[in-house]
Amino acid sequence: MLFDGEGKSVQKELFEKLKERAREVSSALKELRKENERLKAEAAVARADADRLKDQVAFYEGERQELKAVVEELLKEFEQVAQ
């Protein structure tokens, strides 16, 4: 067989290329996992900020409601005094 030796070297080269490509894919996956973890942490921080802001909005809305009630009461008193 004239080409038996050549076939093995071609197979070996292809196998080495395949292994190198597998290493590249593995490296890319590791980087993507790291980026995914970073983004998860960033999202958790953003959710915490959003929750904090929602609490602040609820607090200020409560304060606004109280002030509105006080102003309405004062207006009624002024109307009574004006009559």
Structure report:
This protein has about 80 residues and is an all-alpha fold. About 95% of the residues lie in helices and about 0% in strands. The protein is built from 1 helix and no strands. The protein is rod-shaped and about 110 Å long.
Q: Would you summarize the structure shown here?
A:
With 83 residues, this protein is an all-alpha fold.
List the keywords.
single chain; 83 residues; mainly alpha; 1 helix; 95% helix; rod-shaped
Multimeric state of these chains? Answer: single chain
Count of DSSP-assigned helices: 1
The low-pLDDT segments are none
- Kindly report how far apart the N and C termini lie: 120 Å
Spell out the blueprint of helices and strands.
Layout: H1 4-82
